[in-house]
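Q: Hi! First time asking for a complex rather than a single chain. Here are the components, and I think there are two in total. Is that enough to go on?
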Amino acid sequence: MATTRPDVDPPDSPCSVGWTVPQTIRLATREDPFPLEVGGSIGPVDVEYETYGELNKARDNVILVTHALSGDAHVAGWDKTAEATGRLWRARKPGWWDTMVGPGKPLDTGRYFVVCANFLGSCYGTTGPSSPNPSTGKPYGLSFPVVTVEDWVRQQARLLDALGVARIRAVIGGSLGGQQAIEWALAYPERLDKCIVLAASPRLSTQGLAFNAVGRQTIMSDPNFNGGCYYDGPAPADGLAAARMLAHITYLSEPGMHDKFGRRLQDREQPAFSFGIEFAVESYLDHQGKAFVERFDANSYLYITRAMDYYDAAAQWGGGDLVEACRRVQSDVMVVSFSSDWLYPPAHCREFATALCQLGKPVTYVDVPSRYGHDAFLVEYDVVGSLVRSFVNNERRSS
Amino acid sequence: MATTRPDVDPPDSPCSVGWTVPQTIRLATREDPFPLEVGGSIGPVDVEYETYGELNKARDNVILVTHALSGDAHVAGWDKTAEATGRLWRARKPGWWDTMVGPGKPLDTGRYFVVCANFLGSCYGTTGPSSPNPSTGKPYGLSFPVVTVEDWVRQQARLLDALGVARIRAVIGGSLGGQQAIEWALAYPERLDKCIVLAASPRLSTQGLAFNAVGRQTIMSDPNFNGGCYYDGPAPADGLAAARMLAHITYLSEPGMHDKFGRRLQDREQPAFSFGIEFAVESYLDHQGKAFVERFDANSYLYITRAMDYYDAAAQWGGGDLVEACRRVQSDVMVVSFSSDWLYPPAHCREFATALCQLGKPVTYVDVPSRYGHDAFLVEYDVVGSLVRSFVNNERRSS
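A: Yes, that's all I need. Here is the structure of the assembled complex.
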């Protein structure tokens, strides 16, 4: 299914949004800082974002894409600034959801104005722990404040304000992006028609909390971590790589890993009997870890996984009761889970849909059979694309 | 189920094997070393073992217990030497399977002579990477040879030889211990009546390989690791703790973790919004990691997880075909899996039973419903105990 079309469109393809140039906007200043969910505030806040397609006159064709842990604002097309900004990985492949966004694609840029902003605390152009702390002139490191999913959604709402957009056609995201989509439906019910939640539940499982804890542990015990003050020296690359390796296991499924790697040895017939790379799956994880440290900041990883931990829609809006929280929802909602996803398991994803159902609110729930685990939300683009296309284009049912 | 009886018998309880004294035997010398599966040999080899009950005159009442990754020969009772040998954790609790071994218990020491030996490469009295290399007088570290499940089983067979035991009533083990039980049935089919395999499959899954790789990565990138030469200085405690934290997640199940910890905060009502311990599950993992480094050697962790990776019964005995391998089996076999075990999932455990079935060999397979994940083989002692008791005591069916 996932292999029926190439997932890379060259810039001059009629399916591609072509070359893109990330933009930056100052959403808060030091004097008028951005208030934070957990108390306090931060300023300045600069936000990197990208847009695709054209905002129509009625300003009612906006689709907001919310990105996941290691994602960024560069959703589709080819970043024209990749080399100039030293973000060389962007010169090698198009945006992370290029399969979904473009002319004629499920989020059709011939029709919709698609917006995505890098969230606070990340390392892709929006203010984060690697940004200069205006009080010291040095990178924040761990003096950066704790940020939350709620902050990100408020940040996105501010960006839409700045773009003159009062109401959006849809918000859509997968994984941690899906949790932002849930938060959008709860925090700004009057600002959106449709909410699409892929591979995400209203709160992370206990097992998910546990994996995040181990990932942070490997980073914080890296000798280069130095309490988060490593920007003048070597980064805690080993710790971040280990965290990423671990996370990658949770993005796949055991059947999927079996299909892809089995117990195959890497580049040899007989085992070498060593602690180096023996099995193909070890080589894969090693590669994933090393590639990640080239493009991600360890402190950002800490902050973002913590935001993932803390998010709890029921606690935030319903005093612990998800049905109570869902009374707020005014949009049509579609929840899509993936059968072999064990990071945000179908049963957990379904909770949001079930709560809406109990209230008689319009909700579509689909569990997509897949062996790709959590990654399926990106990999199963035929099924996801067709679900998303109909849901976004259909008439609104909620009122 | 698992909470219906205390799992600790004091030394003077009629159910306890009482005080025990670990014994050591030299199974190979430098001059006449122990040959290894992957080539080469090692000597001297000293093996720590314990026995419980009495060997009968016919020498036909022996049950061999095979231990798992972090286990040891101290299966039951209270180690009288705990303080003298500095293994203080043994002064705080009885052997790791005290629920199973003792007078009147499922492995009834009133009837059977129970033997368990610490395996080669471990750090509990048997020769391992922390033992002195006779060529240098210093600890082996990574100059210790790669050891395998096959080596451990051969080592156990030699110990039985030394004890004058030609044939055993049963071998029993869980997890990596279960893989040794499988290997016993294949390598020494003529030496055992019964084989009991708990929570183990004939080979580790791809996902299991992946988790082991990450665990080793955290150890080997610890700044104190120093290529395995750390015995004169601080141990790679952070890396080993992270590896253990990760492994612990794989020993539980998501429903089990949810039951036990949920998203409960540790010792507070409101989150502290920090990277310290916030959630109860984080506190649990932190404790598990710290406790482990007090009692385990990081190099041993590397060697033992590698042995776990390499073991593949079908490759070893059937040219890749498990049914072919199983033609060798002459014992009655019982395989017990646990419904929420995802380290050795039921479907994988069942493969051994299915292969034996296809050959018309006597095999009992039970999947125990449990929310305790892989740990269930230790925790569900009522069910496991009753299965084991009948299986061991019943007349032999195979011929």
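A: Chain A touches chain B through 53 residues (CB under 8 Å). Let me know if you'd like any chain examined more closely.
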